[in-house]
Amino acid sequence: MVLPKVIYENLPYLYFLLSGALLAYGDSWYYIFSGAIFYIVACVVLVTRSAHRRLDKQNYRAIKHALPELLYEYLPYTYGAIGIFILMSTRQPILQFVAFALFVLALRNLVCRRTNRSKAKGLF
């Protein structure tokens, strides 16, 4: 089965929206579990696509991270999930600020990662 490109490219974001809708709609464990599954599937799809679409593949194996590669790849999504959990579970302003900071950090990491991986390595 082949999906049209518009649907295929936006499917992980639809999963994120479904996850958010499930978390916002209900408080039972069924909604929370289903929302978590949709969030995890969206993260896996985006990380897998990123790995296959890298233009800097020749230098990909030479990069050494302080964290294991699997943890490094999913860290921005983990920041986002923790931020969502904090926002849903508290009304304290300082913790809401921490959640906002986690969202900003996750977004920054994803934007930098996309920029670095979408262009071939230059000479300088």
TrEMBL record:
Keywords annotated in UniProt: Membrane, Transmembrane, Transmembrane helix
Lineage: superkingdom: Bacteria
Transmembrane residue ranges: 7-25, 31-49, 70-88, 94-111
Protein name per UniProt: Uncharacterized protein
Source organism of this protein record: Thalassotalea insulae
Organismal lineage: Bacteria, Pseudomonadati, Pseudomonadota, Gammaproteobacteria, Alteromonadales
